[in-house]
Write a structure and sequence with these properties.
By secondary structure, this protein is an alpha+beta fold. Helices cover 56% and strands 17% of the residues. The chain contains 11 helices and 12 strands. The strands form 3 sheets. Strands 2-1-5-4-3 form a 5-stranded antiparallel beta sheet. A 5-stranded mixed beta sheet has the order 7-9-10-12-11, with helices on one face. Strands 6-8 form a two-stranded antiparallel sheet. Strand 4 and strand 5 form a beta hairpin. The two termini are 46 Å apart.
Length: 482
């Protein structure tokens, strides 16, 4: 069973297919070339033989027309008859002389004397046309030549000469050449196949090195990167593989950091609650006011823990496939107005002016719940990380063209350093950890926002100047792209 499995694996391998390719390349062209050469030889040899016979036959026909051979009756002697017999012997053929009455005057085989012959070729030759045919199946050339005196100005045809010439010697030579070609092929093809297999094994060796290198990296015994630079293709594969490995390492580091951050973020409120609870337990006679303060602090930590868990659950839902989106046609103007209405109390407490600019009515195919969460996070961050001197403002603008809607959230807040702009969408990342913890941030809001926007096939970009404010530009297709 194991041998059969290995055999089937070999049949599906690149080596086997390349060997088949070499075999086809070594066999098919040589067979086609051999057949072509044989056919060319036969055609060329027949043409030469026919030309020779036709030339001699015409000379003899002219001599017959100029002599009294056609009027000698049954006399089969003389110079002309000797020449006819000689032509028959030289070319291993048969000559038939037909007179003007379509009777056979002379047959060198003595089979059809005095018989009448009416054939298409004979009729055409009586009109002065030379006719030549080759019978490849029976291996002979047949030709008819008109007999007319070249000195007769009228060109009167007095008879027809039929000449049949055997081509058995041409066929024997063709068979001999075919056998020689077969022998040469039987010698050359195994040699070509042998060296072809060696060449294939040598050229596919880098693929084995790639496989071994990947296996070594997988098992942890290889180098940190794959290097097989035999060919341009293997070099490109190694480059892409190393990039993938690097990306996977980054993802693994991110995952470990995420788990560590989740553990830390969830543990911190629990630790605070335990400290507060231990403090209460250690003071059984503490005044009621102190108990109330401690319980208020514990309640705050519970709310913070709940917010972290809710944000984590939202992020998990965002990480699912876009098939979970509940797409519907939504009035975006009303949706953003509702968001700002809910956040207005927070803006009032922070003494931040909240402004909405709608340039035109916008309706889009979106998941209202997820997109509301995304825009809420953007506006809420803009309010919370704003100035605290009563001069802060947040402007939300909505616009659209024939294809996209554009939402801009601009604030006059503390800003984000340029080097941190590429990291603000990472989970639990905070530009200012102490300030974020003071205002209750979990570090998950922008990660949730970005996931929701990407699920809608949109894009988000941030521009910021420290101390002056931050602008988030969001672009989302009006029609959902599945």
């Amino acid at each position: 069973m194991r041998k059969n499995t290995k055999f089937f694996q070999f049949l599906k391998s690149l080596k086997f297919r390349l060997i088949l390719l070499i075999l086809v390349i070594a066999t098919v062209p040589s067979l086609i070339l051999s057949m072509g050469i044989m056919r060319y030889y036969e055609s060329r040899a027949v043409t030469i033989r026919a030309g020779e016979v036709l030339s001699q036959a015409k000379i003899l026909a002219n001599k017959i027309a100029a002599s009294e051979y056609m009027s000698m009756g049954n006399v089969r002697s003389g110079t002309i008859q000797a020449q006819i017999d000689l032509l028959t012997k030289i070319y291993d053929g048969r000559v038939i002389i037909v007179d003007k009455n379509f009777k056979i005057y002379c047959d060198t085989y003595n089979l059809d004397d005095n018989k009448t012959i009416i054939a298409e070729e004979v009729m055409r030759s009586f009109k002065g046309v030379d006719v030549t045919n080759y019978d490849a199946e029976n291996h002979y050339i047949e030709m008819t030549i008109p007999i007319s005196d070249p000195e007769d100005s009228t060109g009167t045809v007095v008879g027809v000469m039929l000449v049949s010439v055997s081509t058995d010697n041409i066929e024997l030579n063709r068979i001999y050449l075919s056998k020689m070609a077969t022998i040469i092929q039987m010698i050359v093809m195994p040699v070509m196949l042998f060296f072809g297999i060696l060449l294939i094994l040598y050229n596919v060796r880098p693929l084995s090195l790639l496989s071994d290198g990947i296996g070594a990296i997988r098992d942890g015994y290889g180098a940190e990167s794959l290097q097989v630079n035999n060919y341009t293709e293997t070099r490109q594969i190694c480059k892409r593989f190393n990039e993938m490995i690097g990306r996977m390492k980054v993802m693994d580091d991110t995952r470990q950091e995420f788990v560590s951050n989740v553990s830390h973020e969830l543990k911190t409120p629990l630790t605070s609650m335990k400290v507060l609870a231990d403090s209460i337990n250690s003071m059984p006679d503490a005044p009621k006011e102190m108990y109330q303060d401690f319980m208020a602090d514990i309640t705050g930590e519970i709310e913070r823990e709940t917010k972290i868990i809710n944000d984590l659950l939202s992020l998990v839902r965002m990480d699912k496939s876009a098939a979970d989106l509940n797409i519907a046609s939504v009035n975006i103007n009303e949706m953003i107005e509702q968001i700002l209405k809910r956040l207005q109390p927070i803006a009032d407490r922070q003494r931040v002016e909240l402004v909405l600019e709608s340039f035109r009515p916008v309706t889009a195919e979106v998941d209202e719940v997820k997109l509301t969460l995304a825009f809420t996070n953007l506006v809420e961050n803009a309010i919370k990380y704003n100035r605290s001197d009563g001069e802060g403002w947040v402007r939300v603008s909505l616009n659209a063209d024939h294809q996209y809607m554009f939402v801009k959230v601009q604030d006059s807040g503390i800003g984000i350093p340029e080097e941190a702009l590429d990291q603000i969408y990472e989970r639990f990342y905070r530009v200012d950890k102490s300030h974020s913890r003071e205002i209750g941030g979990t570090g998950l809001g922008l990660a949730i926002t970005r996931s929701a926007i990407l699920m809608h096939r949109g894009a988000i970009k941030a521009h910021s100047v420290v101390g002056e404010g931050t602008t988030f530009d969001v672009r989302i297709p009006l029609n959902y792209i599945a």
